[in-house]
Amino acid sequence: MNIATEFSKIKNYFSPKVLGEVNDTYIKIAKIKGDKVPWHNHKNEDELFYIIEGSLVMEIENAPPFTMDKGDVYIVKKSINHRVSSQEECCIMLIENKTTLHTGTIQNEITKSVDAQLS
């Protein structure tokens, strides 16, 4: 598969798409633009962010926000409150356990079920 081709199929921001699975983890891609991701955490799972294109603002509770650029990787450890945003379109890859809920236990307009991410 080609990552650029897969990103071209994504029409909505904040809507992860599962590309495949490795053991008990999903490999996902998403486009981010704006600031609709709520503060949330994943009680039992770490989450890896890899920036494919663009810049992403990562906010971690009780820490200053920082910008991630193309090629950067960051792992949010389990139970850590976080949120992301981007001024311009940003293409990211996520590596998450299959049990990871999109926006943790917080439900809002961008929350997607695993089934929605698989389609």
Provide key terms for this protein.
single chain; 119 residues; mainly beta; Jelly Rolls; seven-stranded antiparallel beta sheet; 2 helices; globular
From N to C, what is the helix and strand string? HEEEEEEEH
User: What's the domain count?
Assistant: 1
Strand portion: 35-45%
What distance lies between the first and last C-alpha atoms, to the nearest angstrom? Answer: 16 Å
CATH class division: Mainly Beta
Largest sheet: 7 strands, antiparallel
CATH topology: Jelly Rolls
Mean pLDDT: 93
Cα gyration radius (Å): 13 Å
Number of helices: 2
**Secondary structure: number of strands:** 7
Q: Detail the poorly predicted runs.
A: none
**SS-based structural class?**
mainly beta
Structure commentary:
By secondary structure, the chain is mainly beta. The protein has one domain: Jelly Rolls (Sandwich). The protein is built from two helices and seven strands. The chain has helices at 3-8, 114-118, and strands spanning 17-22, 25-34, 47-53, 55-60, 66-69, 73-76, 82-97. Strands 1, 2, 3, 4, 5, 6 and 7 form a seven-stranded antiparallel beta sheet that branches. A hairpin with a 2-residue loop joins strand 1 (17-22) and strand 2 (25-34). The radius of gyration is 13 Å and the shape is globular. The mean pLDDT is 93.
Question: What is the element layout, followed by pairings?
Answer:
Elements: H1 3-8, E1 17-22, E2 25-34, E3 47-53, E4 55-60, E5 66-69, E6 73-76, E7 82-97, H2 114-118
Antiparallel strand pairs: 1-2, 2-7, 3-6, 3-7, 4-5, 4-7
